[in-house]
Amino acid sequence: MIILRHDIDNAFSTRNLFLKGLNYLRMKLGKSLPVWQSFGYLENARWLFEREKSMGVRASWFFRTVTKPPNDLRQDLLKEGHEIGFHADRIKNGSFFRIDLKYVADGSKFFGFTKHGSKGLHTPRGVGLGEDYSLDVCIKRAKNNEMVYFCGSDVVPTDAFRTVEGVELFPSVFWVFPGYMDDSKFTVDWLIDYQSDHDVVVLIHPEDAVGLFPKVARKVDMIYDRCAAVVSFEEYLRSKKVIRS
Is there a domain that residue 32 lies in? Predict the structure, then answer.
């Protein structure tokens, strides 16, 4: 079974310099920069949503403060049975984490979160730099904010799921975009075979699917075409009776 994860990293597409500039400004100015729909705010995410809607595929979507979904997209995702979660930039400081979580959740209950980037990446709204990925800190943030799970970004997709301090931990993912895992070992053919009798998390960013990188998009197509069981984290954890409400 595949647990499908989408990290929504970019407010706008990266297909040209103008849109890359908007992404930079959104990062530096945060909420101060209007999210003009006419310029394509979250257009890649919307495109991927429509594709998955046509296929009956449901996933977990993780949004940053700079990619907070507008109400129409939020409602569309939930109506189609997707899960919405938090893609955190700032984890070291518990107060910053709660502020960002509350902003993205906008009154909703999030069951889990993921961590964006690592040290050296700019933090939204110009507050410092991105922070080192720390599994211990992420587990702590999930626990302190009454979340059910945390999904890490390590690069060995066979890593076992486990429970740590009452938090369900999914430590690694199958990265569709190359350069993170051992891509010669963890191929799409490997994934198709492995997921037939194992559970595995697959990370697809919207940019992976829309054709900006044709070889990556073909990998996405193969996964959609050849994998029978695809679920969100929430669906998976409900099936295991971890989430009951």
Answer: no
Nearest to 127 by CA among 97, 153, 87, 151: 97
- Mean pLDDT (whole number) for 167-188: 95
Q: What are the tens digits of pLDDT across the range 130-165?
A: 677 889 999 999 999 999 999 999 999 999 999 999
Question: Of 86, 79, 88, whose CA–CA distance to 58 is shortest?
Answer: 79
Under 8 Å between Cβ of 92 and 127: no
Closest CA to 5 of 78, 41, 58, 68: 58
Alpha carbon separation from 18 to 40, 112, 208 (Å, rounded): 11, 33, 20
Residue 187 within any structural domain of the chain = yes
Summarised one tens digit per residue, pLDDT across range 221-243 is 999 999 888 999 999 999 999 99
pLDDT of 19 over the 80 cut: no
Q: Is 150 left (phi over 0), alpha (psi -120 to 50) or beta?
A: beta
What would the two tokens of residue 158 be?
Answer: 């066979």
CATH of the domain at 220: 3.20.20.370
HSE of 71, CA atoms in CB hemisphere, 13 A: 2
